Amino acid sequence: MKRENLRKAVRKSLVEQLKAKGADIDLYKDQVNDYMMMWDLKEQLKDDIGENGLRMKYKAANGGSVEKDNPSVKQIPLINKQMLMLLKQLDISTDKVVKEGGGDSDDL
Question: Which of 10, 14, 45, 88 qualifies as a cystine partner to 72, CB 3.0-4.6 A?
């Protein structure tokens, strides 16, 4: 699935979960937007790792090159943690998923 299509599907899914809970008010919709911003950032970090690898070469002050850890590697777990905290705040979890059509998801 293309990234933009996946992004739309993730956002739609979050909004549907809020609707099913009767919590689709502006405050929570804004939090969904915050979640999607973090989702975009996570995807950009993954792209950076894909392009530059786990380690990157930098030019040192003395003109030589130095290899360092790619900072994106450390950022992904931090972003994921924030995303999970936001889902918790929205009370969206695997044991509380509402399937499309309104039924609870017991048969995962």
Answer: 45
pLDDT band of 98, cuts 50, 70, 90: confident
β partners of residue 56: 68
DSSP annotation string for 57-107? EEE-TTSSEEEEE-HHHHHHHHHHHHHHHHHHHTT--GGG-B-TTS-B---
Residue entry with tokens 């937007």: 33
d(CA 91, CA 104): 14
CA 78 – CA 75 distance, rounded (Å): 5
Number of structural domains in the chain: 1
Contact criterion met (CB below 8 Å) for 91 and 15: no
Looking at residues 74-92, what average pLDDT do you find? 95
- Strand-pairing partners, residue 68, are 56
Q: What is the pLDDT of residues 38-56, one digit of tens each?
A: 999 999 999 999 999 999 9
